[in-house]
């Protein structure tokens, strides 16, 4: 049994070799069609499988008929498409870290809070706020670092799960902070691209 990536870049199958032969006859499959045997994770051209190569003999096109197969994107072309969202995730990550550091420094350098008049309550509030500010700052710095690493890996076509995680984090307002307005569309852009079969094939190869 096999799966294929069709001309519309959608995944089909699993199908048998007989069904594959029928698709070749119909012009839906050729030697360049990406195929994934059942039980495997990588995608390879149909012509690279000895048991299927004979099915992909070129067929004469019908008179006046336009080609039905879309060109298969190469790994270099897919990586070029990943470059844009990868850089965008890097930028959002750096901005998130800088904003987090600025917030923490501003909090501790700000004027003391207004006193309530009750020393016990004042000490409690002050003691609770500082650890919270530090903890939130460290969480944002960690998220920013994850976006930076995820963006770098995405540009290289490596660590698919990390690239997905970084994309999701960029969409969360409390992690991307001031960058949430920019991070939301960037995260959506990255996830849409990462879910394309040919992109998954590059990460798995």
Keywords:
elongated, alpha+beta, 60% helix, 2 domains
Overview of the structural elements:
Helix content is 60%, strand content 7%. The protein is an alpha+beta fold. The chain folds into two domains: 2-56; 75-204, no CATH class. The chain has a four-stranded antiparallel β-sheet. A hairpin with a 5-residue loop joins β1 and β2 (11-15). α3 runs antiparallel to α4 (119-156). The chain starts with a strand and ends with a helix. 26% of the residues are buried.
Structural class: alpha+beta
- What's the helix count? 8
Q: What's the main sheet like?
A: 4 strands, antiparallel
Q: What is the H/E string?
A: EEHEEHHHHHHH
Shape: elongated
DSSP strand tally:
4
Distance between the termini: 20 Å
Radius of gyration, CA atoms, in whole angstroms:
26 Å
Low-confidence parts lasting 5 or more residues at pLDDT below 50?
A: 62-70
Per-chain topology:
Layout: E1 2-5, E2 11-15, H1 17-25, E3 34-37, E4 44-45, H2 50-53, H3 75-109, H4 119-156, H5 160-170, H6 173-176, H7 180-194, H8 197-204
Antiparallel strand pairs: 1-2, 1-3, 3-4
Helix pairs in contact: 3-4, 3-5, 3-7, 4-5, 5-7
